[in-house]
Every structure is written in structure tokens, then in C-alpha cells.
Amino acid sequence: MEYKHECEDCGGTEFDVDDARAEMTCQACGLAIDNYTNDADTNSSISMGEERTQEALDVFANNPNAAQGGRMNPFGDRTDHAGRRLTSAQRALFIRLGRADRSSQREKDPMCREVKLTLARMFGDNLARATTHLVDAACRKLSPEQEAVRRTLTPGEQAKLSCPKTSITRKKRELRGETHQDNLQIIALAIAVISHEWLRTPAFNPQVVMAQYNITEQQFKNAKSTIMKSYKARLRQKWVAAPKGITRAALRADKLDIAAENLDRALAEKLNEEELKLVNTVFWNIMNDLEEPTAEGPLTNVAIPFIAGCAMYAALCLIGLNHGNLGRVAGAVGLSPAGLTNRLKDIEHKATTGQLPEAQQMFSALEETDFDSSSKDEGVEDGAEE
Q1: Is residue 21 part of a domain?
Q2: Which residues partner with 85 through β-bridges?
Q3: Are 154 and 136 in the same domain?
């Protein structure tokens, strides 16, 4: 379409007109120029509403401090940040990038956007994009229609459908981060771990990440539990898509690998290389006797890290290296010393009564071990569990 005015950049007179955005674009160089009209359609709900909703949503807007995310200049700057004049080729490139940027929407919830950026920074863009719907469920409030439905449900279901980010950030001090950035990292870690279990994203060792970002076991477990309960509640209402979880056997194997790595790292502080090699040999023999890691073993209803902790402490006792290592083993699998000994007692009872013959080898050298005194030596009262 021809207009009487010229493009200020190249002098062209042919423009593509976009009434929905009240602008026209030079066909020669791509420069966008304001084109406000008195036509009622320019500001109608049809042109400015429905058409905009068809645009792709940019969930990774790079400016978390802006209300709607960072924007590029669609009109093309003439100079760079140092004041040097841009060439025509440079301006044409940035005009095209600006137009592409302007044609995308921005994530409106500030914390939702920040969690996505935190996930990308901590675990990479691929995982961040794969978990977008988990972040939305964890950080976005319910729509007015969904909130109306929530109010008709039982108190317990209403609590689960509350916004998880609000619950996590308002917990007592030991369950939430000290700063806003701490809370973002806690939520990001919880979502990354859930994504492995539910979305088959690559496995990683959460204890390493927790140590790097000073996240406690309590903070991580609280955030993970809160997000999972809320997502499952939304799933019951059919407000979110059902995740295609990793197979139970594969997930159990991944968790055992992570638990074994944590146990190895914890014991390396006290045992030498030869001792550690011997302990690991006995440990894996015990795990094989227990048919782990599989989904059909005799202890399949027990979390695999706890089984690994019991097997490792049993291996230490068989070799005679258990003294002073109860706390290390328990901490590596997320238990207190008393919690680990309680689980050992339960497995021992099943083994001696014939309910669990696969575990009898574990306790051939444990008969004289006083679990209660061991846990007290570690400075933790019996029964005190994480």
C-alpha cells in the first residue's frame, strides 16, 4: 500500500499496514512507524484482543524486573550503547529482531517468570522449557472460574489447591528461604526433581545442588511435597495434564545411584580407598540379595535410599568399620541416626522371623550391635527423624 510520506531511513513509500498494532512497516528496510487512525477498528476488542491471544507466549522474558518483561525497540535505534552510529545493515537486523520480539506476549506473573529463569540458570534451558507447566501450576493463582469451584470442595482439598508458592514462601523460618532469591532456588530445585520422576528428564544428585545453594533437606522436602500435592489436586479437577511418569523400576535405579554416590562421598571423609572399596563390594552384594533395584523386590514398598542406608551400615558392621559412621550414613540418605536404626530393627525383625530371608546375611555380624546406644552416641534422641 502506498502512502504520501516517506520512510525516514530509506526513503521508501510502500508500507505494510497493521491496524491491530497501529503501525506500518516499510517494505524496503523493515522500519516500523506509528500509524494511529480514527478508525474504530483500530482499538476494537476484535483487533486488539482475539488476534493478540493467538501470539506465542514468551515465558523466558529476560528482564524479571519489568512488569511485562524486557522489550526490544521495534523502531530501530540509530546508535549503539556507546553512541556510535549503526550501519543500515545493523539497523535492518535489529528492526527485524524488534518486530519479532514485539509480536510475542510476556509472562505476567513476576514470580512465575523468575522461577522459569532460575530453572534455566540452575539446570539449563532444556529442563526449564520442559517444566513450564509445572512452574505455572506451582506459581500461578487459579483462574476466577477455578477458584469458584475450589470454594465448593472439602477444606482439605481447598488447602491443596491453594497456590503452592504462597504456602512455601510463608512457612516458618526453617522451611522457607531467608531471601526472595533463596525461595526461587528452593522452588526451582523441587520442580527439577519432580520433573525427573514425572517427565523423564535426566536424573541428577539433589544433594550436590542443595550444598551449592545452601538449601536444607527440610526446605527441599517441604517445597517438593507442597508442589506435588497441589498438582495432583489440580489433576483431579482436570485442570492440568497428567504427567507420563518414568517407570518405577527405572526411577528406583536412578535413586539408588544417587544414594550410593552420597554414601560414598560421606564415607570418603573417614575411610581410606581400600576400606571404601571393600565396603562397597559388600554393600552391592547385600543389595543384590535384596533384589534391588527392582519394582518386584521384597522391600519394594520402602524408599530405596533408606534401604541403601541400612545396607551400607550393615556392610560397615560386617567389616568392623561401623564405629562413628552411623551419622554419616544416615545423613547421606536423609535420615537421622535414630531413624536409620529404627529401619534396621524393622528389617532385622522380618529377617529373624522368616518374613525376609533375603536380609539374613545383613545381620550375621549385627547381633552384638546396640542400635540405641549407637544413635545416642551420635547425639540424636531415639525416634527423632527428619
Answers
A1: yes
A2: 79
A3: yes
Cell of 378: 551420635
Q: Over the stretch 290-348, which tens digit does the pLDDT of each residue have?
A: 888 887 888 888 899 999 999 999 999 888 898 889 999 999 998 999 999 999 889 88
* Model confidence pLDDT, tens digit, residues 39-90: 444 444 444 445 455 555 455 544 443 434 455 555 566 777 677 888 888 8
256 with 368, same domain: the answer is yes
Full 3-state SS string of 165-205? HHHHHCCCHHHCCCCHHHHHHHHHHHHHHHHHHHHCCCCCC
Whether residue 307 sits in one domain with residue 188: no
Query: Left, alpha or beta for 56 (phi > 0: left; psi -120 to 50: alpha)?
Result: beta
Contact by Cβ (8 Å): 57, 104: yes
Main-chain phi, psi angles of 33, to 5 degrees: -125, 140
Q: Which three cell numbers stand for residue 64?
A: 524479571
Q: How far is CA 100 from CA 43, 55, 56, 70, 220, in A?
A: 22, 11, 10, 13, 38
- 10 Å CB burial of residue 118 (0-12, 13-18, 19+) is buried
User: Which of 281, 291, 289, 335 is CA-nearest to residue 309?
Assistant: 335
- Is the confidence at residue 36, as pLDDT, over 70? no
Q: Do residues 332 and 309 make contact, with C-beta atoms less than 8 angstroms apart? A: yes
- Give me the mean pLDDT over the 369-382 stretch: 46
Looking at per-residue pLDDT, the higher value among 234 and 379 belongs to 234
Q: Which three cell numbers stand for residue 190?
A: 523441587
User: How many other C-beta atoms lie within 10 A of the C-beta of residue 246?
Assistant: 18
**What pLDDT is recorded for position 360?**
80
Cα 275 to Cα 366: distance, rounded to the nearest angstrom: 19
Residue 3 within any structural domain of the chain: no
Mean pLDDT over 164-172 rounds to: 91
Across all residues in the chain, what is the average pLDDT?
80
The last residue of one of the domains, among 236, 271, 299, is 236
User: Would you give the DSSP letter of residue 15?
Assistant: E
State the total domains in the chain: 3
Provide CB contacts within 8 A for 93, sequence distance 6+.
none
Residue 70 inside a domain? The answer is: yes
